[in-house]
UniProtKB/TrEMBL annotation:
UniProt xrefs under Gene3D superfamilies: NAD(P)-binding Rossmann-like Domain
CDD domains found in the cross-reference section: 2-Hacid_dh_1
Organism taxonomic ancestry: Bacteria, Bacillati, Bacillota, Bacilli, Bacillales
Family named by the database record: Belongs to the D-isomer specific 2-hydroxyacid dehydrogenase family.
Pfam entry (one): 2-Hacid_dh
Domain D-isomer specific 2-hydroxyacid dehydrogenase catalytic: residue ranges: 14-303
Organism name: Lysinibacillus parviboronicapiens
Name of the protein in its database record: Phosphoglycerate dehydrogenase-like enzyme
Alphabetic keyword roster: NAD, Oxidoreductase
Residue stretches making up the D-isomer specific 2-hydroxyacid dehydrogenase NAD-binding domain: 102-276
Keyword set includes Oxidoreductase: yes
Length: 314
């Protein structure tokens, strides 16, 4: 069996993998080549290098392991037609992403951006507007692995959590659950509106002008899921109209964000270049999911962890 990594893990992670699975022929290569695709039984990728054109060369390919949560850039229909199994690393992002989101929330609540600016100007001023996170309410769109971890951390700060998903079914660390069709009723209660939703047809432009109009004027809006959640112009209009207090954005409709986008310079906007999940332990955690799945695969099993339904996008 030949397993083709289209990226190169660190040596200290790669060597134990090769040693543990000595019966496997591993290829580690930065970047994808059609020559290696033609030989591969399994491809391990971040999901951005495979396309419909080069997939046709992968005639032996039976399993794609995606070291990422999103698969929107992959040729879903072609993969489905070929019957190729796809699994991913859903769940490994929860620790770094939850820490990133909590860091932004606390920074805003305790006025850290203002303090940094004062330091740059060498100005000693106590005219600072600080608020407390305690006793606030957070509405979390998409309380899966990441959203639930955020909820767990927010509970430690005395925050009430409202989870919102398609079904409204119960999720861990959510005090209340609502479905998408009840979102307009829940938004006015939230001091923090935080999305970690995946990119699907249903989540595309889920938030519209009417949703921002009912948010609290001092609400912190955070998008750490996918940029399709809201039309950029709708968001810009809401910020300019002071319909929300702050916007913290890790994802955008078009990435990288255009240099002339107003989001770079609008007050009370934080632009994070899609890095909230980055961590020195990212590949380590990915391999911790890959290895047990590989054991099953070598035994002829297809009931792997995090098998994806590409027709649904997750």
């Amino acid at each position: 069996m030949r397993i083709y990594f289209t990226f190169e893990p660190r040596q200290d992670l790669r060597e134990p993998l090769v040693e543990e699975f000595s019966q496997v022929d591993f290829v580690f290569q930065s970047g994808l080549t059609t020559e290696e695709l033609q030989k591969a039984d399994v491809v391990v990728t971040y999901g951005e290098d495979l396309n419909e054109e080069n997939l046709q060369y992968a005639t032996k390919l039976k399993w794609i392991f995606v070291a990422s949560a999103g698969v929107e850039k992959m040729p879903a229909q072609a993969i489905i037609e070929r019957g190729i199994l796809v699994s991913n690393v859903r769940g490994i992002h929860k620790t770094p992403m939850a820490e990133s989101m909590l860091a932004h929330i606390l920074a805003i609540k305790r006025a850290l951006p203002w303090m940094y600016e004062q330091q740059k100007k060498c100005e000693w001023s106590k005219k600072v507007k600080q608020t407390e996170l305690c006793d606030s309410t957070a509405l979390i769109l998409g309380p899966g692995a990441i959203g639930s971890e955020v909820g767990r951390l927010l509970h430690a700060f005395g925050v009430q959590t409202i989870g919102c998903n398609r079904s409204g079914q119960k999720a861990p660390h959510m005090d209340v659950m609502v479905s998408f069709d009840k979102l307009l009723e829940a938004l006015p209660k939230a001091d923090i509106v935080l999305s970690v939703l995946p990119k699907t047809r249903e989540t595309t432009h889920l938030l519209k002008e009417e949703h921002f109009k009912v948010m609290k004027k001092n609400a912190i809006f955070m998008n750490f899921g996918r940029g399709n959640l809201v039309d950029e112009q709708v968001l810009i209009r809401a910020i300019k109209a002071d319909e929300i207090g702050y916007a913290v954005l890790d994802v955008f409709e078009q990435e990288p964000l255009a240099e002339n986008s107003p989001l770079w310079t609008l007050p009370n906007v934080i632009v994070s270049p899609h890095v909230s999940s980055h961590s020195s332990r990212y590949v380590e955690r990915s391999l911790n999911i890959f290895k047990p799945s590989l054991v099953k695969w070598l035994d002829g099993e297809t009931d792997l962890e995090n098998v994806m339904d590409l027709s649904r996008g997750y």
